[in-house]
Amino acid sequence: MVVNIDRDLKVKVLVLGDSGVGKSSFTHLISYGQITKNHPGYTIGCSTEIKLHDFKQGTLDEKAFCVEVWDIGASKSHAGSRSIFYNNVNGVILVHDLTNNKSLQNLKKWLNDVLNHESSYGLNSVKVSTSTSTPATEQPPYSGLPLIMIGTKLELVNEVNRASKMTAGRNLSTQLGCTEILLDTSNPKYLVAGSGNSVKLSRFFDKTIEHAMLQRKVSMTTSSNMVTTSSLGHRNATALGVEGRKRVMTSAASSSGSNKLSPATSYKSAHLD
Q1: Hey, which residues does 5 pair with through a beta bridge?
Q2: CA–CA separation, 241 vs 254, rounded Å?
Q3: DSSP-assigned letter for residue 6
Q4: What pLDDT sits at residue 241?
Q5: What is the DSSP string of 193-217?
């Protein structure tokens, strides 16, 4: 089956999390379908990969999209300039290390940094519905921005602590209104096609593409309204200008007529003199 590739729609996804949690390894795995041969170093600034995703796979509407996956460096020395990468985002992947509780706690901070950033269209202006229901005891989802949590280094978590680690991550993912995937980024079997993790990830990317489509629609509607308003303003100004000139001409003619003396009046004035 030949799948059409849409190269016009820009889809941007951020990969966020503390240093050393495995963001670069995960980005490489989902972009190329294989693990990195060399241990990736720390990302300075940002590293971008392109993932080809089959939108609505297996349906008549199936189409491939090029998704930009932005692996954001977590160096504290670049914290002040990191926000330049936060414009026009269509989805966020939050990555934490299962052996590092602090990295899980910091995910809210990473997400808030993005949501509080002012972008061209406004991240919260475009909503994509989610089937994830939020219990009454939990806070509602942060926004309509598609989210997914990734817990890495599963192979390093012993069986005794695994249950508590999973519970902590599940609680946060429920609070954020998203799903979570636990995996070992050095083993591609965790994302093999058809697996539960693979389906979750595919649904996430479907939502990011829907978000980008709606964002483009909002942008086009806004631009169209601006053009229409500008055109109406121009026409109104032109009409007012024409009407104004008519009034001036009418006033001038009236004034000229009132100042012109009749022959009788002219004669009387001359006779009096």
Answers
A1: 64
A2: 20
A3: E
A4: 63
A5: TTSHHHHHHHHHHHHHHHHHHHHHH
